């Protein structure tokens, strides 16, 4: 248990810092929807992507808010038995409090019972966490039907432009040049808030190491730290490429395919890496064939692997994948006679998406044929060819389908609708 004085001091320190923070760039979140929702609001996402700042942005919708960050060394001795003492201190500081923000509460065993009790007593609750699996398993057990979830990612390109007050609909030559420059920077630097602010690569490297050691090694009690580091670095360096578990056994030094699968699941739960399987009507074949890996952020990947210029096409593809899952799509890659980068599906929408930095006579047939085949064999209602800055391309092979839209990627990234093209 934690002593009363230390707990009181920690709470007051945290609240002072939290309520005096810069609210940062406004996120593309439906604040009214989640503020009005009767359930507990769960915000999950990778470390340092802005979850605490999002809480601060929600603060403006309420009059009496209390905040506690459990990812604080002064809470090391905090246990489930201390929750009632914590509540007493919070009510003492603000007797009118009716909204609680709990940051990284998953660190405390039994937290879900405390949160459920507060919710049942009529309090509005927001909680954040950096591990998808721990939160989902505990929520499913104790809070079924009582919550709504927000998955937060590093800044999108749209949010970055909004933060810099750049209007992508302004078609002047000067402004379009600025937008394109920002898009190239987005592909290389990604969207971690503090990296954008300070432009210090060491920030994302430290974040990456914190995820490996705190969210994976420590959380799952892994002894073979070198295997975790080797596997994570290999996957980061070789993002967007296809792999088999057997090949990763050799790379990492792990003893079995099962260990590799478990480690990749740990990476996914920490929002560090994402596994993309091949599109197939057979679920069994989906999971027995090769997979591709994508990184949460191209800027983090480039800082870790010390690469960018020769990998710009891969960074381009990676950021499209992240944007699709940000928009709520389930994503596969397609391969048959040809290849298509993504099949993306969510309720009411199924798309085939090809990502090509620049379409040329040399790659036209490969890109278009793969996209056309994916449209025919998956039943997707539309095909999108995302390019760096081409809006139209010559029909070099005479087989351009009318269902295919050619969209400059910087435009696609700035609109919430997948079909909305600026004219």
Characterise the protein shown here:
The chain has helices at 4-19, 31-36, 51-59, 83-93, 111-120, 132-142, 157-163, 173-189, 193-198, 201-220, 225-237, 245-252, 257-269, 283-288, 298-305, 312-326, 364-378, 409-414, and strands spanning 40-45, 65-69, 99-103, 124-129, 147-152, 242-243, 273-277, 291-295, 330-335, 339-346, 349-355, 382-387, 404-408. It is α/β, with parallel strands linked by helices and 423 residues long. Strand 9 (330-335) and strand 10 (339-346) form a beta hairpin. Helix 1 (4-19) packs across helix 4 and helix 8 (173-189) crosses helix 15 (298-305). The termini are far apart.
Helices and strands in order:
Layout: H1 4-19, H2 31-36, E1 40-45, H3 51-59, E2 65-69, H4 83-93, E3 99-103, H5 111-120, E4 124-129, H6 132-142, E5 147-152, H7 157-163, H8 173-189, H9 193-198, H10 201-220, H11 225-237, E6 242-243, H12 245-252, H13 257-269, E7 273-277, H14 283-288, E8 291-295, H15 298-305, H16 312-326, E9 330-335, E10 339-346, E11 349-355, H17 364-378, E12 382-387, E13 404-408, H18 409-414
Parallel strand pairs: 1-4, 1-5, 2-3, 3-4, 11-12, 12-13
Antiparallel strand pairs: 6-8, 7-8, 9-10, 10-11
């Amino acid at each position: 248990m934690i002593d009363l004085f230390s707990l009181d001091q920690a709470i007051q320190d945290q609240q002072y810092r939290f309520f005096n923070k810069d609210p940062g760039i406004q996120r593309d979140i439906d604040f009214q929807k989640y503020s009005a929702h009767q359930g507990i609001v769960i915000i999950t996402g990778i470390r340092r992507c802005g979850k605490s700042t999002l809480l601060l942005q929600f603060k403006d919708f309420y009059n009496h808010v209390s905040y506690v960050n459990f990812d604080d060394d002064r809470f090391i001795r905090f246990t489930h038995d201390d929750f009632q003492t914590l509540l007493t201190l919070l009510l003492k500081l603000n007797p009118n409090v009716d909204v609680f923000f709990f940051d990284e509460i998953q660190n405390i065993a039994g937290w879900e019972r405390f949160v459920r009790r507060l919710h049942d007593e009529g309090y509005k609750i927001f909680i954040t966490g950096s591990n998808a699996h721990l939160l989902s398993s505990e929520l499913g057990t104790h809070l079924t039907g009582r919550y709504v979830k927000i998955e937060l990612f590093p800044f999108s390109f749209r949010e970055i432009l909004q933060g810099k007050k750049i209007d992508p609909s302004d078609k002047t030559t000067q402004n379009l040049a600025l937008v394109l420059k920002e898009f190239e920077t987005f592909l290389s630097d990604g969207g971690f808030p503090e990296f954008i602010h300070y432009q210090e690569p060491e920030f994302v490297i430290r974040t990456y190491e914190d995820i490996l050691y705190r969210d994976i090694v420590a959380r799952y009690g892994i002894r073979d730290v070198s295997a975790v580091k080797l596997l994570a670095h290999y996957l980061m360096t070789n993002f967007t490429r296809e792999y088999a578990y057997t090949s990763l056994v050799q790379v990492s030094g792990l003893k079995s395919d099962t260990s590799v699968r478990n480690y990749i699941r740990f990476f996914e739960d920490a929002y560090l890496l994402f596994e993309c399987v091949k599109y197939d009507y057979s679920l069994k074949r989906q999971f027995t064939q090769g997979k591709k890996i994508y990184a949460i952020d191209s800027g983090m990947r480039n800082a870790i692997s010390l690469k960018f210029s020769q990998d710009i096409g891969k960074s381009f593809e990676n950021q499209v994948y992240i944007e699709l899952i940000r928009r709520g799509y389930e994503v596969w890659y397609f391969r048959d006679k040809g290849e298509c980068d993504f099949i993306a599906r969510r309720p009411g929408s199924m798309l085939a998406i090809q990502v090509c930095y620049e379409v040329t006579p040399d790659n036209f047939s490969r890109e278009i044929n793969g996209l056309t085949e994916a449209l025919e064999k998956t039943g997707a209602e539309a095909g999108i060819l995302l390019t760096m800055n081409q809006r139209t391309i010559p029909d070099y092979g005479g087989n351009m389908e009318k269902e295919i839209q050619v969209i400059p990627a910087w435009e696609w990234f700035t609109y919430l609708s997948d079909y909305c093209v600026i004219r």
